[in-house]
């Protein structure tokens, strides 16, 4: 993966986020997209060595489209300014589809490599199931959360969007209340690759995924939400 070429393309796209510019630079995009697909394909094969459940994940479906969904957004920029992929056992990458826990990574226009694992903003039925498991399996959840490799790489679970009060149906004295209040159950770490490109990008991303595995595995033990 030519990271510098990718970040340069994304930086230029962020300054020229319109269809005319994108069409003119489509050949560059196609090459970079193919490289990113190859990287994701390699990662799926490598993840499957410690997490066989993802072996059947289709790399083409794991990649997110660069086109933005502008239907409900005030921002009418047509393109995303990052390349991203979510690798799941179900093969479904979006939480709204019931995809379950994912290994996620992206590289953005600023040259930030984000490596993550878990579930980001799962739909209400799924979120309730996770919260219930946090309470009912308090010891198991705490044991997972304190995994040495998980903590060393990511610290604690992210608090983004955390509720100020217990969610409906949960008491103020519920075990692990600070985690019950969370809307996502995910960890992530960020690295600046704009100036110093990793010698082994795939290896670095894979190392992060390995350390996120305890969270992914714990979440996978909860029955998946199936949209109606």
Structure report:
- This protein is α+β, with helices and mostly antiparallel strands and 228 residues long.
- It has one domain.
- The chain has nine helices and four strands.
- A four-stranded antiparallel sheet has the order 1-2-3-4.
- Strand 2 (102-108) and strand 3 (112-119) form a beta hairpin.
- The longest helix is centred in the N-terminal third of the chain and has 22 residues, at 26-47.
- The N and C termini lie far apart (39 Å).
Summarize the structure.
This protein is of the alpha+beta class and 228 residues long. The chain has helices spanning 3-15, 19-24, 26-47, 59-62, 124-136, 138-145, 148-154, 177-180, 201-220, and strands at 82-88, 102-108, 112-119, 185-192. The protein has a 4-stranded antiparallel β-sheet with strand order 1-2-3-4.
Characteristics of this structure?
alpha+beta; 228 residues; globular
Mean pLDDT: 92
Strand content: 5-15%
For the termini, the CA-CA separation is 39 Å
Helix content percent band: 40-55%
Radius of gyration: 18 Å
The run of helices and strands is HHHHEEEHHHHEH
Number of domains: 1
Number of helices: 9
Query: Biggest β-sheet, characterized?
Result: 4 strands, antiparallel
**Approximate shape:** globular
> Order of strands across the biggest sheet?
1-2-3-4
Q: What class do helices, strands and sheet pairing give?
A: alpha+beta
Contiguous runs where pLDDT drops below 50 for at least 5 residues: none
Please give the number of β-strands: 4
């Amino acid at each position: 993966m030519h990271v510098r070429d990718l970040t340069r393309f994304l930086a230029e796209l962020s300054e020229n986020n319109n269809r005319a510019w994108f069409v003119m630079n489509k050949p560059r995009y196609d090459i970079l997209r193919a490289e990113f697909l190859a990287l994701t394909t390699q990662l799926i094969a490598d993840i499957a060595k410690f997490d066989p459940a993802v072996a059947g994940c289709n790399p083409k479906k794991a990649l997110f489209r660069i086109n933005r969904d502008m239907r409900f957004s005030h921002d009418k920029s047509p393109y995303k300014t990052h390349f991203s992929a979510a690798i799941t056992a179900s093969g479904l990458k979006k939480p709204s589809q019931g995809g379950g826990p994912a290994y996620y990574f992206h590289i953005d226009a600023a040259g930030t490599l984000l490596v993550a694992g878990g579930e980001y903003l799962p739909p209400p039925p799924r979120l309730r199931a996770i919260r219930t498991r946090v309470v009912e399996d308090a010891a198991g959840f705490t044991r997972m959360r304190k995994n040495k490799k998980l903590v060393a790489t990511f610290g604690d679970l992210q608090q983004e969007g955390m509720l100020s009060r217990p969610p409906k149906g949960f008491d103020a004295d519920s075990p692990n209340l600070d985690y019950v209040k969370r809307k996502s159950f995910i960890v992530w770490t960020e690295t600046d690759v704009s100036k110093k490109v990793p010698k082994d990008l795939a290896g670095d991303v894979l190392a992060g995924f390995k350390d996120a595995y305890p969270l992914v595995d714990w979440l996978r033990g909860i029955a998946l939400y199936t949209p109606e």
